[in-house]
Amino acid sequence: MGSFSIWHWxxxxxxxxxxxxxxxLRNIGSDLGGAVKGFKDGMKEAQSDEPGKLGADTxxxxxxxxxxxxxxx
Length: 73
Known about the structure:
The protein is mainly alpha-helical. Helices cover 58% and strands 0% of the residues. The chain is built from two helices and no strands.
């Protein structure tokens, strides 16, 4: 009862294709690929930003804010 052979994986693939259909699997694959691409682009953008720009808006201006406590009524 070791690892699965290629025949086990082929049977599982055929069953999955019968259950979901090839069009739905293709859509899932393209959605997953788009998500991975977006994640990679976001990581590249985050690495290329300067470390001091975390508190800046798109114009490079520093964002100033004030925290207030919530009062109970």
